[in-house]
Protein: FAD-binding oxidoreductase
Amino acid sequence: MSLSPHLAAFLANQPHPPKIEAPSTVAELAEILKEHSESHLGQTLWVAGNGSKLSWGNPTGSVDLLVSTRGLHRLINHAAADLTVTVEAGMPLMELQRILAEKGQWWPVDPLYPDWATLGGILATADTGSLRQRYGGIRDLILGITFVRADGEVAKAGGRVVKNVAGYDLMKLFTGSLGSLGIVTQVSLRLYPLPAAQGCLRGTGSLMVLEEFCQQLLRAKVSPVGLDLGLDGGEPYVAILFHGSERVIAEQMAQTRFLGEALHWQEEVKEGLAATTEVGRGLMTLQPSSTRSETVLMKFGCLPNRSLGILQQFQALFPGCWVQLHRGCGLGRAWVVNPEGGSLEQLQQHLKSAGGFLTLLEAPPPLKAALAQDLGPTGILMDKLRQQFDPARTFGLRLPVVSSDSLQSPEASR
Structure:
């Protein structure tokens, strides 16, 4: 199996390339971890799927051993009648979607780098985008996990049924943990019927007019599966995604256009979405023109009712930037070319004072270190969790600044 471009670039920049293990069974993985915990004290182990987001979080020091789950890519069970599937964590998302599409189903997530993202990697980074407006975040779509602890012991949490008993929510802890608590080997997922069609409207206007439109739309009898407000090369836009039958989509689009009659609209409709690579893409997708090495990728969050002010800050500090803010929950992504550290710090402080956060996902290590936040009580809690799951500190510290998948429910944002 070929390496992702992101993983290849990471390995090329390492002063001492790490050893790479890609076990094909859970037993092999457990043995690797057991041996490492007993014989390689002080050596750092990192976890990856295809490595497309290996730089996310706050990695410290060099890596001695890189364990990839890409050899664990088998389908365990697809209970189509129950809308659930159990699959090994190294399976790429696009492969799973092709399997599910044969039964008219899909797993409704839209992470970055979908051609390389694995199921375990999506869980570990809590990475989904516009579709969370309708389907929720990653934790909402996970029913159960199997993972291997740092000492090589295999553990389980949850199950493959939609309803489960309440308890210690390990799925929530592992969502966004970036491989710092254990290695997820198997996931049970909540599925949805594949939409018959999708339509997308993209409107342009001033930020203030677009924000007023979003407020109207959230109060209207319209049910978009995605609602983004942002900047495309510095130019304000709003993008609304609909799923359903062609008739329902046409009605929803007509009502949306009526609410935003002052905006300039583009329209796109796709029918018969058997090719699941098209679901959630199209006019919703931003395409920054800069290369990966020139661009800083960040994740941010704010209270939804502070969206306008945050986007105005981006517009003033970083002309020509790309920002995708999911208006229903206040989470977003931004791409900025060669930003100044002072401007980033100013934005970070503004977000913090507004009850939000800013974390750099892909950036030069010195810049990422300069923008690292003091997590306060959250950081203390994370450290205690790591002490419970990995007392020997086998896994490299890659905990994100904010691992929760939402700040506020869409209903509260209205």
